[in-house]
Amino acid sequence: MSLEQHPRVWTVLSASRIGSVHVRDDLPLQDAVLTWSDGSQAVAAVADGHGHKAHFRSDIGSGLAVVSAVEELRRVVGTLSDPEEAGDTVTTAAAAIVDSWVTKVRHHIEANPYDVHDEREAAAVHDPLRPYGTTLLAAAVSGDLLVVLQIGDGDAVLVSDQGEAMRPLPEDPDLDGLHTSSLCEPQPLRALRTAVIDTRVEDVALAFLCTDGFGTSRVDAEGWWRQTGEQLVEFGRNRGLEWMREQLPQWLEEPAQIGGDDTSMVIIARSDLGAGAHERPFDPDRTDEVPTLADTLDRP
Amino acid sequence: MSDRLGGALARKPLHFIFVLDVSGSMMRGGRIQALNNAISEVLPHLKDEARANPHAEMLIRVLAFANEPRWVIEEPTPVDQIHWERLEAVPRGFTELGSALLTLTDALAHLDESSSAYPPAIILVSDGRPTQSSGTTFAEGLQALLNNRWGATAVRLALGVGRDADMHSLRRFIGDEDVPLLRADNPEQLVEYIVWASKAASKVASRPVVGGGGLTAAPPSPIGDPIWSTLG
Asked: Do the domain assignments include residue B216?
């Protein structure tokens, strides 16, 4: 039985939870998540709008980032077949995502100009992208090929059938726990990190992407992502993907409460991972609850 | 296997450090008594802040300084375990603020390097101009503090006491022009200002990101007569 005759099918799960400090300070959810899947292909993006006061439209910035990423990656995901060419494809797509984000932000500014009588907004006139500052972490999978791209903080983790986790992306030397690279920088692609994974070579049962709110308050600061990966594969195998879909919002609730920051996660799992689990029949047409852009675009 | 994904979570520590002037001039006009009362009164407010911010583990330290710095509470201590013992001013004691900032910097250098803490909140209270009898100038002490990663990112607030407080130095300590610099001219004001500064600092410092909104709470309006300024 060859892989070509039975292409891999992928299931995407996602959720976001607002951080307790955002609730305390009457701030919006500044994370955004967006996914798309047709089974053999899937695209997912998470973005973490910066919380600093200078980035006062970062909830919109993160929303525009995930829309840009999913749009551009959907354009190219069908071309992902040759691992040798996929590296260039994802780098080109990243540049298109940044261009798309900048264009969308400028459109939003045109529709919602900065108030020059407001001290904070007036300061943004000379650096108009800054209020929309956000990170971006995205992945696309087509059959056997998985690509990941990232600008800024957050975690991307691949997990094998045996539950062994690995981080596919190189470290960003500019991340120090206090500052992050951002789409609003003058040259965001300088901080771009990418990875191409051929799942015929690398055993990948699932991948997860999460904003930094999920990991920063862990007691095991070095190993939480390995444990998370091992657990997800175990849960998928024993409880099934539908159970994981139901649990995901609760899994994010505790770090969002205790850590205080918005917390988001996307899981891209091989659909056969939960095939042996005793669960309700999986509904492939069910879509995840994701923030709608309409909610953010009408806010200044 | 536990159903909790990712393992155990822990609250991040929020180090809250009072740096208090106990120089000889604090003996004038009941200033040291007022400072003791203010710290006693602020503790219940900090307990409330700790309860309102379950994501942060608030830990208190107190550094007093006159001729030399002295830790009054050296170990980071949960606010509900603080038993305040009244400070005494040092007769004819100088205002060795530079030396105190060096000691503070040494303490910050021992904080966790893994970013698993919030930026510290530091509240400085002083009624005079910094002296340098120990050989360390205020500028040297401040530069050392700002060269430290945690010192640079700390939420720094300062309160002047009475007319002789060196507001220029206190402003340099704060750094951010948007952060109010207050001068207390009577005991009631000192209490109100320390309570305000403590609550504002804990709120800003315990945000998940540095600079997440700045100080938004307006400081209290002056109350009572300016008795310390008329006393000099």
From this structure: no
B126 at the A interface (CB within 8 A)?
A: no
> CA of A231: how far to CAs of A171, A208, B2, B4, in Å?
24, 12, 9, 9
A3 located within any domain: no
Cα A189–Cα A192–Cα A193 angle in degrees, nearest 5: 160
Most A CBs within 10 Å, among B209, B210, B215, B216, to test the A interface: B209
CA distances in angstroms from B101 to A29, B24, B152, listed in the order given = 38, 19, 12
Selected residues 52-71 of chain A with any CB under 8 Å from a CB in chain B = 52-54
- Report CA Rg, chain A: 19
pLDDT in tens, A65-80: 999 999 999 999 999 9
Residue at A143 is within a domain: yes
Instruction: Quote the domain boundaries for residue B203.
Output: 25-208
Q: What length is written for chain A?
A: 300
pLDDT band at A10 (very low <50, low <70, confident <90, very high): very high
Reading the block at residue B144, the tokens are 């050392």
Structure tokens at A240: 């099934």
* Closest CA–CA distance from residue A253 to any residue of chain B (Å): 11
Q: What CA–CA distance (Å, rounded) separates A6 from A10?
A: 12
A167 occurs within a structural domain: yes
Residue A131: inside a domain, yes or no?
Answer: yes
| B81 residue type, one letter | Q
- Sheet with A41-48, strands from edge to edge, namely A31-37, A41-48, A136-142, A145-151, A193-198
Q: Residues B95, B126: contact at Cβ < 8 Å?
A: yes
Encode A177-188: b = buried (16+ Cβ within 10 Å), e = exposed: eeebbbbbbeeb
pLDDT digits (tens, 9 = 90+) for A11-43: 999 999 999 989 988 899 999 999 999 989 999
Tell me if B217 is assigned to some domain.
Answer: no
**Residue keyed to tokens 């539950």:** A163
- Please indicate whether, in this complex, the C-beta atoms of B9 and A24 are within 8 angstroms of each other: no
What is the ipTM, given to two decimal places? 0.80
For chain A, what percent of residues have pLDDT higher than 70?
88
> By the 8 A CB rule, do A38 and B199 touch?
no
Find the mean pLDDT for residues A235-240: 94
State the residue range of the domain holding A27. 10-279+291-297
Looking at the structure of chain A, the number of domains it has is 1
**How many angstroms separate the CA atoms of A218 and A232, rounded?**
17
Q: Provide the 10 A C-beta neighbour count for residue A103.
A: 12
Cα–Cα distances in angstroms (integers) from residue A95 to residues A68, A72, A91, A133, A192, in the given order: 11, 10, 6, 17, 9
**Inter-residue contact A41 to A142 (CB < 8 Å):** yes
Give the number of domains in chain B.
1
CATH number of B89's domain: 3.40.50.410
CATH number of the domain that residue A198 is part of: 3.60.40.10
Q: What residue type is assigned to position B86 of the chain?
A: R
Q: Which residue type, as a one-letter code, is found at position B142?
A: L
Taking the Cβ of residue B6 and every Cβ of chain A, the question of whether any pair is shorter than 8 Å is answered with: yes
